[in-house]
Request: fold
Amino acid sequence: MIDTALLLSMTMIFLARVTDVSLGTFRILQLVRGHRIAATMIGFFEIMIYMAVLSHILGGGRTLKTMELLAYCTGYAFGNYVGAFMEDKFMKGYTMLEAMAPCSDETLKVVDDLRDRGFGTTMIRGEGKNGPRYIIKIICNRKDIPEITRMIKHLAFVTVFDVKSCLGGYFRMKRK
Reply:
């Protein structure tokens, strides 16, 4: 027969582990989407749960002091932020922005402005719910996303996709 204290302990460990693994999965998804602050906060609570359970299991009569637990959790959470920052700064990656815009002179002007700023831009004519649309495709460096979206977001519905690799084509060169 399992005693009540052991059953309660096992249940707590199981539920805590489900919670911290779920938070970990959600944290990774937030990092992938570029939500560093959310990932940092989630990471703090994820590792707090993990360490509390680990301390309970392996503690041998000693549990972590509150300040030790907070230091460990804060380090883990900040590590998520720093890792996302490093990925942003050091990983060269391409992104495809796809904008659905009305077939208008304003859209053509925005496309000309994008091209004038050195962005390779492909336009395809399509049909939307309310008539003809331009589908504007731009493959660029991740760091260019804010500049491009500032130029077109008032005009179009914009989606952003990660590009695993690409060959050929036209890419904006660094300005000197």
Summary: Residues 131 and 165 are 33 Å apart (CA to CA).
